[in-house]
Amino acid sequence: MTEPALTDPAVPEAVALLDAAAEIADSPLLQIAENLRRRVSAYIRCTALVIFTEDCTGRPQKKAGAEEIISLVSIEELDRVRASLPDLEPRWSDERIAGQLLPVLVMRSTTNALLVLTHPSLAPGRREEQALPLLERLWGIAAARIRDKVAEAPPSYLRESRAASAERARLTAELTDQHSTTLETLLSALRSPHETDASARRAATELAAAALVSLRASADRTAALLEEPVVKAFERLRADLRPLERFGGIDLQFVEPPADGRALPGEVAHAARAVVRSLVLAMVEQDGVSRIRVQWDCDGTNLLVNIRDDGEGRLSLAEDGMRRIEQRVEALDGHLRLEVMAGWGSDAFVSLPLDPPAPPSPEAAAWGLGRREEEVLRLLAAGLRNRTIAAELHVSENTVKFHVRNVFRKLGVTSRAEAVALANEASARK
């Protein structure tokens, strides 16, 4: 078989496609839409590119292009478009985007993310049968990387995403109350028996009633984006792990969570799946593991995860990989506990709170202490040693030492005695 010469026109085209794929795969989450739009412009041009993905609960929209479009496009519009797509095939159509009917090219990904290109047109010299497959492949890479980057995100991203979700929920609730009051007042006025223009009153009443229904539906949809039913979240986990069972020769056993369990905040659901995947992979890397049991439960306040293997019981929280998993759990104020028994396997227990932590005390805020650091200082002031604090907080002793060092640095002290004295002084002022 003859290899293509470097002068073959197909060679630079292939190199350009590989460069585009590499850039999209390496893009930060906040730049992935802009990079995707720039790269696909070699095949299909557009005035704006919008991505809608529920994998990223803090920012489900990722947008680039014309400001008059990306600033007005709504989740409700995008969700309606996605629901109208019967499969993964791209579709040229006219859709209501940013409050107006626009020509668009839309497609879903295997992760159920949506891509919208407004005012699409083929780049010069391109044919549709050539451009669409290339666009589909670059979009598939982008959608998969968004999902993976969210799963691999550092603790700071998880905290920021949770804060963004909470803020969006608060604003939605405020707008719902505001507009509901306005529309209900309008309905009352138009239903007044003193109104003589019956037909106008009837038409206005119907319009206002429809607006109320739409507003409530939008609020419900936003709430649904922020939460995931625990059973649905667990099913997505099973789907994520299925290839490991199929190709890795591991007997994965799943214990279903209660069907009536509390819905999980989006960040908790995504973080929990990432933690379970990481723990399962850490267990698989051990010799002699043939069976792993995964169980989820919910006590109304926390998501409770238990993962057990039948290996030699050699996992340790001191390992780099396990330490990274522990940091991810702690980013959501959760706890990771590991029990091992030589020759009998490893048992990992994870607890993730479903609600954001309470705000820190004024003293902790003034010192710049995080929630876990405040807890460590409180236990230090109670006279507990590092090992006891670790048991109390369900973390490793190395984690406690890490937090103690941070507490010392933020308080400007060099010893436990000084830290305890400052904490007691602050407590006495209350």
Structure description:
With 430 residues, the protein is of the alpha+beta class. The chain has four domains: 10-151, Beta-Lactamase, CATH 3.30.450.40; 155-226; 230-353, Histidine kinase-like ATPase, C-terminal domain (Heat Shock Protein 90, 2-Layer Sandwich); 362-428, Orthogonal Bundle (Arc Repressor Mutant, subunit A), CATH 1.10.10. Helix content is 54%, strand content 18%. It has helices at 10-26, 32-40, 67-70, 75-83, 128-151, 155-190, 198-226, 230-248, 266-284, 320-331, 362-367, 371-381, 386-393, 397-411, 416-428; strands at 44-45, 48-52, 61-65, 91-97, 100-108, 114-118, 121-122, 227-228, 251-255, 264-265, 291-298, 302-309, 335-341, 345-353. The strands form four sheets. A five-stranded antiparallel sheet has the order 3-2-6-5-4, sandwiched between helices. It has a five-stranded mixed sheet with strand order 9-11-12-14-13, with helices on one face. Strands 1-7 form a two-stranded antiparallel ribbon. The protein is globular.
Essential attributes:
430 residues, Sig_transdc_resp-reg_C-effctor, 14 strands, WH-like_DNA-bd_sf, LuxR C-terminal-related transcriptional regulator, alpha+beta, single chain, Tscrpt_reg_LuxR_C, Beta-Lactamase, Heat Shock Protein 90, DNA-binding
Helix-strand blueprint:
Blueprint: H1 10-26, H2 32-40, E1 44-45, E2 48-52, E3 61-65, H3 67-70, H4 75-83, E4 91-97, E5 100-108, E6 114-118, E7 121-122, H5 128-151, H6 155-190, H7 198-226, E8 227-228, H8 230-248, E9 251-255, E10 264-265, H9 266-284, E11 291-298, E12 302-309, H10 320-331, E13 335-341, E14 345-353, H11 362-367, H12 371-381, H13 386-393, H14 397-411, H15 416-428
Parallel strand pairs: 9-11
Antiparallel strand pairs: 1-7, 2-3, 2-6, 4-5, 5-6, 8-10, 11-12, 12-14, 13-14
Helix pairs in contact: 1-2, 1-5, 2-5, 6-7, 6-10, 8-9, 9-10, 12-14, 12-15, 13-14
InterPro entries: HATPase_C_sf, Sig_transdc_resp-reg_C-effctor, Tscrpt_reg_LuxR_C, WH-like_DNA-bd_sf
Organism: Sinomonas terricola
Domain HTH luxR-type: 362-427
